[in-house]
């Protein structure tokens, strides 16, 4: 989302200073159309509208009816994303295609690395146990009966 507009005013020294208005501060993080919400989530407008119905996306309406203006707060969308992702992981549900896909890719990469490292450790442990058994067998052969 673009930065909130700032309003310059002249000080006693004549230098202009940028000040954020109270209105802008109160509406920071407000997405005021389907297009802004879709851009924030990194998907299309129809996808967001579908998610509103299917996934209970926190979209607010001014008035009633299908053509009523909509708005959403970035903080509510972030919280919904976190809880929806947690539910998807717990239930094996599909992960939404959206802005946080990069985070998912990072998690998947980390998971792949973890699986590879675990596999290497298991192989190393298996080799170590085999060497230990060989050593025990050799020493048992040299012990008097």
Concise summary:
By secondary structure, this protein is α+β, with helices and mostly antiparallel strands. It has helices at 22-26, 34-41, 45-54, 74-91, 101-142; strands at 6-10, 16-20, 30-31, 60-61, 70-73. Residues 4-18 have low confidence and may be disordered.
What does this entry look like structurally?
It is a single chain. This protein is of the alpha+beta class and 145 residues long. It has two domains: 1-99, no CATH class; 100-145. Helices cover 57% and strands 12% of the residues. The protein has five helices and five strands, in the order ββαβααββαα. A three-stranded antiparallel beta sheet has the order 3-5-4. Strand 1 (6-10) and strand 2 (16-20) form a beta hairpin. The longest helix has 42 residues, at 101-142. The chain is rod-shaped and about 95 Å long. The model is unreliable at 4-18 (pLDDT under 50).
Q: What's the structural blueprint in terms of helices and strands?
A:
Layout (H helix, E strand, L loop, with lengths): L5 E5 L5 E5 L1 H5 L3 E2 L2 H8 L3 H10 L5 E2 L8 E4 H18 L9 H42 L3
Antiparallel strand pairs: 1-2, 3-5, 4-5
Helix pairs in contact: 2-3
